[in-house]
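Sat 14:20. Reprocessing the chain from the morning session after the first attempt stalled halfway. Input below, unchanged.
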Amino acid sequence: MVHTGSKTKNLNRDKITDAAIAAFAVNPEATVAEIAEAAGIVRRTVYGHFPTRHDLIIGIVERAAQELIDALPSPEDIPDEPDVALALLELCNWPVGDRYRALLGVGRRELGDQRILDMISGARQLTLDVVERGQARALFNRRVTADTIVAVSEAASLALLDDTHRVDGTITATIAADIALSLAGVDTARRADAIRSAEIIWNGISTTDS
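Finished this time. Tokens:
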């Protein structure tokens, strides 16, 4: 049984984070008072969930991290081909990152890139496994470690999201997947084939979830 008080508390928390995401998209310097007003609640309620603006930003990043984990395909949906698998992971993650991209300027300034990367690293081991499999099959670059490829890819994703925040619509999930495969050392022709295969799987997953 879910107590009414707990349900209301969770609804308020979600309302606050939704309002904060929208507010930061318009004004990265939005105050707690402005966020409370946008959420239709009093500041005291915001402070009950997030004692400081800094805590609110951390709360949003934590929510993004959970959504990234939830967006991951199930093991049976991950293809055996490492290049298709890597493209699929990027396609699945991109919509979540795109939703939270407005937070990047605020979050990166207040938390730093590494803190954000650490907080959204739930998919890192899965990506590492895919990259290591690709290296073992000589599909991916073996001159650097799998950890390095994943770290560079994560940093590139942040940069891409930051860029599409400044120029809406110029970066898509497909472009992000292409760049991830390029960083792994996959040639142009194979990248295109891998992304097409991944998009078929991704569309099937999206249809099932909707």
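The chain has two domains: 1-51, 63-209.
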